[in-house]
Design brief:
It is found in: Membrane. The chain has one helix spanning 44-61; strands at 62-66, 87-91. It is globular. The mean pLDDT is 91. It has a two-stranded antiparallel ribbon. The longest helix has 18 residues, at 44-61. The chain contains one helix and two strands. By secondary structure, it is of the alpha+beta class. The structure holds protoporphyrin IX containing FE. Residues 33-36, 39-43, 46-47, 51 line the site of protoporphyrin IX containing FE.
Length: 93
């Protein structure tokens, strides 16, 4: 199990709760999506604002549905939706 799914570090890990990162946030080194140390992801600083802009536009400009709601997301070791997570986008009114 990855640290971000460990219930002792992240209660209700499956529940979307952005507030869990507010204030002091999670314990140090408990959330390490980019690895750490001398081999930490080189794309770290690039990927985070890129994802922020992408999610901002998806949330603000579109409504979306999962086309395969029960799609499996195996970990090997990173989570990867087995069918590529197809979604249906509709423009927001
Ligand atoms: C959400 C996006 C990304 C995630 C979650 C991610 C995650 C990771 C992780 C976990 C590692 C292994 C770190 C370790 O061994 O401790 C890694 C390595 C690496 N990542 Fe990323 N990455 C992302 C995006 C990117 C992007 C956009 C680039 C390039 C533009 C990139 C370039 C690299 C490189 C070159 C390494 C190898 C670093 C090394 O071995 O010295 N990554 N990444």
């Amino acid at each position: 199990m990855t640290t971000s799914k460990d219930p002792t570090l992240f209660p209700n890990a499956e529940q979307f709760d952005a507030s869990r990162y507010e204030g002091a946030g999670p314990a140090p080194y408990s959330y390490v999506p980019f690895g750490g140390g001398p081999r930490i992801c080189l794309g770290n600083e690039y990927a985070r604002p890129q994802i922020l802009v992408f999610l901002h536009n998806i949330v603000k400009r579109f409504k979306w549905d999962l086309m395969i709601p029960d799609e499996k997301v195996p970990y090997d070791p990173m989570p990867a939706p087995s069918q590529g997570l197809p979604i249906r986008l509709r423009p927001s009114a």
